Structure prediction request, 441 residues.
Amino acid sequence: MLINFSSSCTCPPSSSYFLRRLSNSRPRPLKPRTHIFKSLSSSVSYSSSSSSKTRFLYPLAKRVDYRSFAAPGFDFGSVESVLEAAGVLTAIIIVHESGHFLAASLQGIHVSKFAVGFGPSLAKFNANNVEYSIRAFPLGGFVGFPDNDPDSDIPDDDENLLKNRPILDRVIVISAGVVANIIFAYAIIFTEVLSVGLPVQEASSGVLVPEVRAFSAAFRDGLLPGDVILAINGIEFPKTGPGVVSQVVDVIKKNPKRNVSMKVERGKRDFEILVTPDENLDGTGKIGVQLSPNVKVTKVRPNNILEAFNYAGKEFWGLSYNVLDSLKQTFLNFSQSASKVSGPVAIIAVGAEVARSTVDGLYEFAALLNLNLAVINLLPLPALDGGSLALILLEAARGGRKLPLELEQRIMSSGIMFVILLGLFLIIRDTLNLEFIKDIL
Prediction:
């Protein structure tokens, strides 16, 4: 019923690289309340040189590009932040696979493998008749079962083989990975509420400039970190938000090598400044700044445990809504949003940016990854949990008659091949979009 790797039956791999770029989740309107929903962290930042969108209020060393209207660009930054982001991604994969593993083990179902990644093993050990391994390609992971393994000494009619279990038992095993990610996401948010509190944003007019890159057009023409752009080419910005930042980015992109007039607030002074965008290879303008909505962030902490559960619940449902809405928009506008699908390289790059901002940003990054992984794995596609669930539901609809084993293996094997090829493509594409790689090229 599940994916068959070689001769062994495996739970569908956790497909972390199918995640949409997290920043494309839409933040809900700002309201004067103790809870506010954010897509990644506590704010959004943009770079007009690559039209990027991340979620930081504070100056960062580089920029991340994952807006639909821009050529993507990523920067790993410090080694420490990269390791933190990679650790978060690995932990989420382990949690997902542990859900499958525990659901099987607690029901007495035989398990033969627990792997993080795919391909050849880099390191492995055996314990209690289970092979634990780390594999070469970081595209997810899988739990293996000895159902069709010719090397297994377990009788084919053993009632504790997964394939011989009732439909409900198999459904529990397959769906347990998704359940584990959902529980983990809530636990992360609850921990954030108790440890650092929830960020609350208070909107102000204009667009904040957290960072100006050295020797960029903005640097050359006098923009400074901390400036607030109140208007551009006569367009006033009475309210802040992602749409306002997009307006600034669009004007800059459309005016390479032409003067762009900006009304800037610096301290208590307002004045006009002319910036001449440099030209990108694709003919668009860039000025080399990060931009973010001009918001003030405060932290709200619960007064008691009940209030903590209340805050965590609101945040959890808000993030869940955004993930589902983002996925819906992907399918409704697939031709425009297909480029927003990210691989592990891009996810770690985004996570590294988040890790360099605030602790609460890393909390929310981890929660969003969990929810994305849960939702994506429920899609009824071969090689995903949802694909295996669909086969089991088909079996139930056929009155308990399974599809021929060879047909199931073909379906799942083709799905696995597609997943691996897509993952490798995303790794190569996202690697080429790393800032230092782009600079070299």
Notes: The first helix runs from residue 79 to 106. The longest strand covers residues 130-145. The radius of gyration is 24 Å. Residues 1-76 have pLDDT under 50 and may be disordered.
